[in-house]
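#lab-general

N.A. 3:47 PM
ok so I finally got the sequence cleaned up, no stray characters, all 220 residues accounted for. can someone with queue access submit it? mine expired

B.Y. 3:52 PM
send it over

N.A. 3:53 PM
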Amino acid sequence: MTIARATGRRLAELWRGRDVGLSYGAIVVVASLWINLQSGPTARRIVENVSTNLENMRSHPIEVLVASAFVVSPLLQLLLVPVVIWVFGMVQRWLGRTALIAVWVFGHVGATLFVMAMEITALYRHIARFSIVSKPDVGVSYGMAAAIGLLSARVPRRWRLPYGLGCLVVTGGMFIIWPTFTGLGHLTAVIIGLGMAAAVRGGERAVARTRSGGSVGVGA
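B.Y. 4:20 PM
back already:
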C-alpha cells in the first residue's frame, strides 16, 4: 500500500505543471505511430494533407496549422517529444498553462507564416523549385524552439545574454549548414521566443517598480 501511495505521489508530481506537455506529447506519439502503421502511400498522403505547405495553406490554412503541430515525420523526430515535455513543463511551472499555450501558438503559427512568406518570395524570384508548394512540413519543433527562446528570461541574469546568443548561434548555424525553409522556421521561432522573453522581463521590471513605488508611498 505504501509503495502504491509513493508511486501515486510521484506520478502526481510528474503531472503537476506538466499536464500540457505530457498531453501534447501523448497525442503526438499516438497520432504519428498510427499514421506510420498505414501503408506507405496512405501514410504519405495523410502527412501531406496535414502539412503546412503552400498548397494546403491556400486551401485550408486553419486545419493544417493545427494538425501539423500534432504529427511528426519521420518517426525519428519522436525523440524530440521528451524535450518538448521538459521544456513545456518548465514554462508552465513558471508562467502557467495560458502563457505556455500562447508561446506554443505564437511560435508554431508565427514561424510557419514567416516561412510561408519566404517560400512565396523564393518562388516569385525563381530561387526555389515549384515542388516546395506541396512539400510536407509537420512537427513539434517550432513550438519547442519558441519555448526554449522564452526560457532566456528564466535563467540567472549573468547567463541571459550567453543563453540567447547560444540559441541564435545554434539555430542560425544549422540554417547556414542546412539552408532549408524548415531551418529558417526554427531560427524564426527562437527569435519569437526571445522577443517574448524580453516582454516578460519588461513586465516583471514594471511590476517590481510599481511595488517598490507603492512601498515608498506607504512608508511616507
